[in-house]
Design goal:
Elements: H1 3-47, H2 55-60, H3 75-91, H4 99-123, H5 127-149, H6 156-187, H7 197-218, H8 222-238, H9 243-269
Helix pairs in contact: 1-3, 1-4, 3-6, 4-5, 5-6, 6-8, 7-8, 7-9, 8-9
Amino acid sequence: MSLHSTSTTRSSIAAANSLTPKRDMWAQISVVFSLISTVVINALANIVPFNGQTTGAISDSFPVYFVPAGYVFSIWSVIYLGLLAYAIYQARPSQRTNSLLRTLRWPFILGCIANSAWIFAWHYEIFPLTLILMLILLGTLIIQYTRLQIADRPDAVRLWSVHIPLRIYLGWITVATIANITILLYDLGWRGAPLNGPTWSAILLVIATFIGLFFALRLHDAAYTLVLVWAFVGIYIKFSNEPLVGYSALAAAITLALAAIVALRTNMVSPRHDANDLHHPLTSNQKIQ
């Protein structure tokens, strides 16, 4: 290699490195902007409302047995407050080059785009597209959750600003994805044959309970698990007059509530058993800081 080509290569590397802080800054700004846009679109969808109907009214128009009572959807206030804390935390200059947050920013932005697009597809009743967008959102959250797992153990600020908000968000989108599937199938004309709606709801509750048990007992994630408890109590209240659905939801909620207590106790007794520590042993240099 000539001296000229070596010099050119070094100049290119230097130029790329000089652009990195700017890219990080724009990524930070994009996270904040995408979250604000998502919150505004979700709010306008019900204030205007888009296509003359609210988000909840569309859900209630389908006689499916996996959609919880209306008050349960107030969890979005908790989710968005948590995500606001995340957006502010990652936007701090001291976190600009944080390698962990770098791996979370673009999946988060894509998730916000999917969330916003879902609102339009839902209000204009393009239900096959809603499921595709919901799966994209779920996928981005799984990616972020997985990356948090291989990170070093967080301090209290990062735990409550990053980890807990994303755990709660993933928990709710897990429930929302199952509900979205049931609504799409109903819209396509499938009524559950050879089983009836309540039986399918009970089956889905069992599946969701096993998912929750995995997060609680394997990943020791109480935050995710408690979101499922919140949703299942809402299903019980809404369908208390349908014994199979109501009692299945109640049993699922009690089971997962107990599992969440176990997860909390495990983390208190042995802090190493945090969801973020369940990864292959890494050296301090290998961990994502």
